[in-house]
Design goal:
Layout: E1 2-3, E2 24-26, E3 47-49, H1 58-65, E4 73-75, H2 83-92, E5 97-99
Parallel strand pairs: 1-2, 2-3, 3-4, 4-5
């Protein structure tokens, strides 16, 4: 488990992909602009919290996260995410729970 919650991070290092045994990643409350493609190497990741990161391009992020076959729960709360992008992600991933509280679309 790794929590980088509320650190005002604008980016993650590409080396995040080296944490291949990581099951929980909490990135809530940052200022992330992008997520490195290396996140797709986190094959054991079950829970990812991206709540309160409104500057992320979720079309790109969710396309990458669809490759994480063990991802069960994704929190996108309080972000501007197009519902169509979320629906497409749900159709193409194994993720069972996509939380999107108070998430107005653009």
């Amino acid at each position: 488990s790794l929590s980088m919650r509320g650190n005002l991070l604008q980016s993650l290092p590409k080396s995040i992909g080296l944490l291949t045994d990581l099951k929980v990643l909490d990135l809530k409350g940052n200022e992330l602009k992008e997520i490195p493609m290396t996140i797709t190497s986190l094959s054991k990741l079950k829970y990812l919290n991206l709540a309160f990161n409104p500057d992320l391009d979720f079309a790109i992020v969710l396309a990458s996260l669809g490759k994480l076959k063990n991802l069960e729960k994704l929190d996108l709360s309080y972000n501007n995410v197009d519902p169509h992008i979320i629906d497409k992600f749900k159709e193409s991933s194994n993720c069972k729970i996509v939380k999107q509280e108070l998430t107005p679309s653009k």
